[in-house]
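fwd from M.: "can u put these together and see what the complex looks like"

so here's what she sent:
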Amino acid sequence: MTGRRLGKGGLIDRGRPLSFRFDGREIQGFAGDTLASALVASGVGVVARSFKYHRPRGLWANWAEDPNALFDVALDGVTRPNVHGATTVLEDGMELRSVNAWPSVRRDLKAGLDLFHRFLPAGFYYKAFMWPDWHLFEPSIRRMAGMGRVEPGEPGTPALNRHDRCDLLVVGGGLAGLTAARAAAEAGQDVVLVEDHPVAGGALHGFGGTVDGLTGAEWAAAQIAAIRAAGGRVMCATTATGIYDHRLVTLVTAAPFAQAPRLCRMRADRIVLATGAVDRPLVFDGNDRPGVMSPFAALDLLGRQAVLVGSRIALLHPQPEPVAARLEAAGASVSIHDPAAERLRVKGRKAVTGLCVAGCRHGCDTILAAAGSTPLVNLWCHAGGKLDWVEASFVPGEGPEGLSVIGAARGTSDDDAIREEARQAALGAALPPRGRPASGLLPNPLRGRAWVDLQNDVTTDDIALAARENFTSVEHLKRYTTLGMGTDQGRNSNVNGLALMAQHLGRTVPEVGTTKFRPPYVPVPLELYGGTRTGALNHAPKRLVLEPQHRALDAALGEYGGWLRPAWYARTEHAGRADEAVAREVLRTRQVAGILDASPLGKIEVMGPDAGAFLNFVYYNTMATLEPGRVRYGFMLTERGAVYDDGVLARLGPDHFVVSCSSSHVVGVMQHLEAWRQDGHDPDRIHVHDATQAWATVTVTGPRARDIVSDLGVGVDLRACAFPHMAIREGRFRSAPARVSRVSFTGELSFEISVPLDRARILWSAALAVGAPMGSGPLGMEALSILRAEKGFVIIGQDTTGDTMPHDLGFAGPRDRKTEPYVGDHGLQMEVARDPDRLQLVGLQVLDHAPKLARGAHLVRGAASGRPVSEGYVTSSYDSPTLLRPIALALLARGHTRMGEAVTVWHMGELRTARVVPACAIDPEGGRMNA
Amino acid sequence: MTYSAFRLFREGLRGQRGWTQAWRSPDPAAEYDIVIVGGGGHGLATAYYLAKRHGPLRVAVVEKGWLGGGNTGRNTTVIRSNYFFPESTALYDLSVQLYEGLSRELNYNIMFSQRGMLVTCHSEAEMEMGARTVNAIRLNGTDADLLGTAQVRALAPILNFSPDARYPIHGAIWQGRAGTARHDAVAWGYARAADSLGVDIIQNCEVTGFVVEGGTCKGVETTRGTIRAGRVGMAVAGHSSALGTRAGIALPIQSYALQAFVTEPVKPIIDQVAFSPAYGAYFSQSDRGGLVIGGGLDRVPSYGQRGNTPLHDEVLGGLVDFAPILARTKLLRHWAGIVDVTPDSSPILGASGLPGLFLNCGWGTGGFKAIPAGGYLFAHILAEGAHHDISRPFDLDRFVTGRLIDEGAAAGIAH
Amino acid sequence: MQRFTCPFCGLRDEREFSFAGESGKTRPDTAAEVSDADWSAYLFTGTNPRGRTDEIWVHTPCQEYFRMIRDTVTMEVLETVPLRRDPS
């Protein structure tokens, strides 16, 4: 191939030269060039090496179907692997490096592999490398494989994603698509047309000539103007990459090299596919040599980029005349040969020097060879459309509603017929009957090395081998030989591969199978998909209204149950000694009081005449007997009887309850409540409302809690006789409603004060200010976790598993006595719930002065025999600042019956001993809590 | 015919013309001792172990399409046994052990590559749960370690170690014997070996019903006629409920689409399988160079073998956060398989409730790694009519007794 | 991205919905004796049909459960109705 740029014509801007480098060599192109067209224009023939044999390869096609021209490209510090040369717009200063070749494509050290091709047939790796072991061979095979290099670099720019809708989406901006889009837009439809080239016009550029008296480019521009004038939208440089359920189409718009392309998800009421067709390669000896090219690619290069691919061209095409005429007009000499001739053979290695036809050599520098055309039906297949085999092509057959295919993609080749189809499709009318597509040739199994899949180096011999070995279904053929598994997804190779297999088997092509395509239509970078989900926005944690106050107190913030919460305070003061900060907060709470932002605590209101009976059903505990003004601890179970959540239920009035669930379970509990409200209950008599984020909650906990709260003015009689533990009172704080509960997760006297969000800051500041002179201070989550563990209070999900039942935690009462049905009741009565070996919650005490147990350690039996068997695990373990010794909670088989027993603790193979004790290590009588 | 490098060399000298069929395409006989419905990995492995270990038996595998065409040919090829419960470890580690010798046993290179698997932990709470899991795996008698950040970085430097990452890496659960294999080769290797032992593999033959006489399953009705059998085994992942319905059996299974993604081949950048539960994505690099990516199930129960877009954002967005240098690597293809999801996400092996018909189903997202064990145990069940010790806990009856094997529950999730 | 019609809020994308199970399951009355087999059938067993299916879904933003008749192969949604109304 001896490509050159013509002095005039094309869509390039000769006033804007661009320079770039290819394997170190400086090359010039113009604005409007792709990487591939600029290379061909400057006479570069070999653009890449093939995947398996490292054969030299040139450009095959001038757009997405080209399987060869892939480069690693760098520009301004941004690198991208496997950049597709024929579709990527050239930018000034690009650095192209060939993939699969070192040091360069012309002299590739691995080219010698081709000499051993006879020993490397399809699937050779399944038959060898078993002895002594695959691992011995794998590393070097891995190094040989792969194509481009991924360079570590600066993080990608987050892609912008958007969603849109339209009445009609037209995919493809050639003669068919433009005609359809214009007709629909002028009929008043909301039309979007997408065209993957930067400039619309499709095959009109390549074939030249005029439409309605205009050149292809002029005509396309006029149609776009008319579509826009009628209110339609046209998106160029935009590829429809997939059709998904309910007619969602992903559209990817190209961006400048350094930026991520943009993803638009378009919902279309109707879709018209006018995606055109590509040349089907002619399979003959040496057809992979650089300089053997798709005839249409040569025309397209001429029309779009004013590149003439060669000066002496041999043409093999079923309908050669229009191609030959156009190339001759551009200055090439063209010899026409019969593509069905026997014994076609390419001469030349890194460049074509001739074509042998039946032993007779014809000198040439370029061979344009096609066996026919292949309609592009990828998107049709994504949507579940079927294919029919007509005149040696797969064309759209039966398909889903709302989707139609027109033009060359349907197999229609006559311009007038195409425009008629387009007008019908635009209006949603039935398409005229399909004409017969132009006939094509099917390959013959032949001697010599003839390529079916260029990128993956699949030859006719490989297909013969697959047939011989009975890999005869289309998917076996593809998977065994890797046919069609490359970046062109078999657009070039599948039909030829199927046809060869059909001949080996003596069957028809459709009997062997049809081609199948999967999204995306062209490879797209992964950065496309992140959108607003990446980085800090990836499942972003919920934020507290008091976060600025916590930051002002130098809080270390951490994620707890989906919320960003203070882990501990005075971070700078205790830098590097977080344990010390946490211990101080624990002791302060036990001695004076801690002030906790408990706002994430669930606050789900349940109201209505049936609310009491309903809650009695969804809770394990008997809630029907709860008095107004009182609070009760309880579990919600799964139907299997496992603990789903624990929390307290408060009764404000006869028909008004508040469910206070774990902060991480609010969404789940809400769904649980709604599910049962609407299933088996009268939803008109129960109302459920999640008010969690309408209230802020500040908990004051510790021996001085009453003194502090009484100074806050919450309008509630706080005396123990008037307001006992496990009670709730409604008061006022700064002329707003306040709810105060006596509920304790620390084992200390506690008041949970909930106020509307806009009173949160003043309540928090007041509590801190009042408490400070007494020695109280803020309490973070880490200290809270220790305080509750000292009391033996569980955290669901940490101290329980998904199998833990309430009686495993020591709450057997309702299971034994509650008579009304409740969620989980049957599960708790099954044999599995009565298993004596169930894991039960216990405390563990280590010997004096020993360090704390490792969290995640298991409790084992049989360690002495060398075959330790797990009997449970440590679920919480801390150094207790209060007790000045380690404490731990554990789930242990038969734990409740083993108090006082010494158990073996196993962690990563190391053994320790601990004594089983009650889970509660502090104030078991509850005097402090009830104060 | 024995495959070897020498044979490959000799065939190279004579144009690769001496190779014979990898398996025959026989017509179905009127009757077999055992008929297996489903020519995927599990069905073919079952046939192989029946012929190899329980023979002589007349065995047929009946496949509605092409062998290996279901989830065997659609998965992300991860093999591991890093399970919490002893019952699970026994099952999956049997599988890993069988995989370890499989290429030589089958004389077919399935390319089991024990590259190791990282399950990253992204908080101290996750590290604690990781320790509980690692201890469990080791007490179950298989290999695992808990790695710190530096060790993870040394193995897989392309992951996101920034302390400002949405989910900073605190460490990982490591299983060195885990890895990947070439999925098609597993199906083909078992098919070829089973065929050579006399098993009839009948492709393009759809089971349309069951022959039931006197309350016992006596064979299958197919698009190629009735095939009678002493016992019938069903290994039709993704379609177990649909086929079960034809036998009058209702199963505790819901069908979902599970998606997989592969990128264009690139030069080696990661050796391990890396899985981040927090980011909801995992990936490994195939020998061809493509990154093979997976994540969670689609939201909508489905029999359509195609994926849906919400998961793309979750999995691919999460992956790029997990390994930012992959941002510009290009997605080549994505697809979906239909998986059986059971209430405890563990498989079902054993009797079906219809005498004579046995089940191998419910593998959820993890059927590929279990192929050798699933086949080995199912062969035992079909030959003996009774459980192997390892398969016993996975009987259908656990949904009645409540003795579920719920790995999610081990992680503290109640559902 | 599929789209479902919440009978109360209208057409919304699938991310707003959660699958809640097959229609027609009534919780056995646990005040009476319930066999483990019946319980298992209620809790675990389904028909999981290939094709037309009748399911319960919840629209998360409004928290209303409803019935949806759809096709599990084509993904066509045939009908959505509130729980208290019968499908046509």
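replying to her w this: Chain B touches chain A through 109 residues (CB under 8 Å).
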